[in-house]
Amino acid sequence: MPRTPHASPQTLRLFEALIKDPATWRYGYDLSRETGLASGTLYPILMRLTEQGLLEAGWEPSDQPGRPPRHTYRLTGDGAALARVRLADAAAKAARRAAGVSIVRPA
């Protein structure tokens, strides 16, 4: 059975964090803290979603002299729509699992 794109547990955790306020720009570090994802997991997901047009990425200059600019991210309209679908699918799957119902998909 083929894997559903953008449905890994790590991507779903990122979607959960971003969908709370999809129009707000978020720092990667803050997303890492909120999701519990390590940078080696989080940043490749952020880059992949950005390349696919599901996230916008930008640079914000530092308020403190000598500090580098920070990368920020937010969901695009398509990204927010996909996040809602994937999170709803995951919730329905978890509810079925909790109820002891399994769905057999045709081969």
Describe the structure.
The chain has a 3-stranded antiparallel β-sheet with strand order 1-3-2. Helix 1 (9-19) crosses helix 4 and helix 2 packs across helix 3. By secondary structure, it is α+β, with helices and mostly antiparallel strands. It contains 4 helices and 3 strands; from the N terminus they run αβααββα.
Per-chain topology:
Layout: H1 9-19, E1 26-27, H2 28-35, H3 39-51, E2 55-60, E3 70-75, H4 77-99
Antiparallel strand pairs: 1-3, 2-3
Helix pairs in contact: 1-4, 2-3
In short:
The protein is of the alpha+beta class and 107 residues long. The chain is 51% helix and 13% strand. 18% of the residues are buried.
- Average pLDDT confidence is 89
Note the gap between the termini: 7 Å
User: What overall geometry do the principal axes of the alpha carbons give?
Assistant: elongated
Biggest sheet descriptor: 3 strands, antiparallel
- The portion of residues forming beta strands comes to 5-15%
Share of helix, binned: 40-55%
Question: How many helical stretches?
Answer: 4
Total strands: the figure is 3
